[in-house]
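Consider this today:
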Amino acid sequence: MNDSYFCSQDCFKKNWKQHKTLHKTGQGETYNVAGFYTPFPTYPFTGSVRPVYPLSAKLTVPKSIPQPDYAETGIAESERRLNRAKIDILDAKGQEAMRKVCRLARQVLDIAAAEVKPGVTTDYLDEVCHKACIERNRILLDGDIINLDVSLYHEGYHADVNETYYVGDRAKADPDSVRIVETTRECLDKAIQLVKPGTLIKEFGNAIERHAKSRNCRVVANWGGHGINTSFHPPPWIPHYAKSKAVGICKPGMTFTIEPILALGNPREVYWPDAWTNATVDGKRTAQFGMYKEH
């Protein structure tokens, strides 16, 4: 449809309820949606989420704060040189540095989570945690669920935490939303229970997929946990699916993330034309919970 936010008449009909709610919410000065648009009018989106352009400016970090090598380009050159067969073992100093950066990341996540409510934009949440990783300005609607993912770099060490939250009472009353959110949370908890010296890394995925299947949810297998320390994504790779061929065994001094993603329907993904945002092929909801663990 020319000069319209909608792709077609069919798209307009399917999304009229959400469109009406969003514009009703956005009539105030703070959430005026006038002038927003989608640059991909003919793309066959799955689900109800749509891009909102123009994008806001990238938030800046003072030059006095040390930044990782990928801060400007998004490319971690140092990680390209890593030996992927070698898993780092941190000494006492490194372990304490990881505890500190992860405490800070948890605090940032909690601050952002406290602002999650119907009518708030994702751009505002991005501003709250001062991270330019949510490049959208969509208004949160009662009934949505949202994942907040906080990555923090402090004194040479990284932290990476995320959780999924309910937006309003409708989300908490929706059986499917509750099933996907709580099952994903439980999958993470069950994997964490296995974290101890001697556990095979592939056992985390066995526990996660077993519980996911028991609640009729499916694991999004393309994404997994990872080592984390002075590098953001060093070895080991932590698959979240069962019967993986992951190598490695948990040892004291290792630090890594476990962050399962579950889907209500088909876990296969499609990418939007922005080459960044991905969605499930059937448009059904996903949830993710992620936490750093050490030995």
